[in-house]
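Minutes, project check-in
Item: structure for the 375-residue chain
Input as provided by the requester:
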Amino acid sequence: MSAIRIRAAVLDRPGIASRVEELDLDEPRSGEVRVRMLASGVCHSDLHVRDGEWDRPGPIVMGHEGAGIVEALGPGIDPATTGLDVGCLVALAWTTPCGRCRSCLAGRTWECPDSPSYSHLMPDGTSRLERAGRGGDVFSYCAIGTMAEAQVVPVAAAIPMPDGTPPEVAALIGCCVATGVGAVAKTVDIAPDATVAVIGLGGVGLSAVMGATLVGAGRIIAVDRVAAKLDLARAVGATDTVMAGDDASSTVAAIRDASDGGPDVCVEAIGLPSTIEIAIGCLPNGGTALLVGMTPFGARASFEVFPFVDGGRRIVGSNYGSSVPAVDFARYARLHLEGRLPVERLVTDRIGLDDVEAAFDRMRRGEGVRSVVTF
């Protein structure tokens, strides 16, 4: 089978620096498409793997937030039924449902524990990537490995985008936008004029701010340690801001003061035990802590049980914004094209493939929102 040569950001194993190297990419097989990548976001989930906080097999092509142009269709793929054809722009979904588990059968595909994507291989259990000139299979993060010049992906992971969607916007819809917007628009019911607080203003948190605006929240309180991120939050819909400090109790008090006693929904979009505890601690009676940020493996948070139960408070987890990519991705893109979802404001750095490690350094320092690799 013929192959093309590409460059990609490869991690040999979690906890060490990635490096750009040449790989051979096989042609797509049945149920697969080849995508020429145009944009790939650098997400905090990539940093979890890079820094050894999440265990993943290696060597693996990094990246799970991307968009590109379909270059080739595998055997048997019908453009009339899939909406995919050579030349169309697609956003890539980092999970494809197994279709057999309890969650999939109930229509909650975002909860699927048996997604073939989690093997970081194609659904048939094999790889389309190997190291150029020396062989050896290479994994592809969530079966899409977006930090590469091209990729072969499962057909269910390639979601056609409306005409006119910028590739960078399509890429971010594939992860942080779907995760943040969907959390407040789909995972929980937010009443009109409700008060929503969002802790952590990275790509997911700012997307949650945008989502709260879309659903008509009356007050949207953005919380972060970085003044520039608070300013950006106001630009995309926040009505109030809180500068977080080192003392958790002071931050809890500030959120309560800004929300007349506590937000109806507090979104935690970082994934740290300390900020999860702040989200729970600031709730009023009947309030909901909506946990969206992903922690390192093994992390635990705690809270005082009696007031939590006595006040009828709730904790809700949200994975991928309860997204059905085939439905939600195009809807978010249309909202962007209508001017109602300013996804482009999330892009604070445009970088090359060789600059991924520098982007990870900025992320560790809390600088910027989203670095996007452009090809």
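Outcome recorded: Residues 3-175+322-374 form a domain with the Quinone Oxidoreductase; Chain A, domain 1 fold (CATH 3.90.180.10).
No further action items on this chain.
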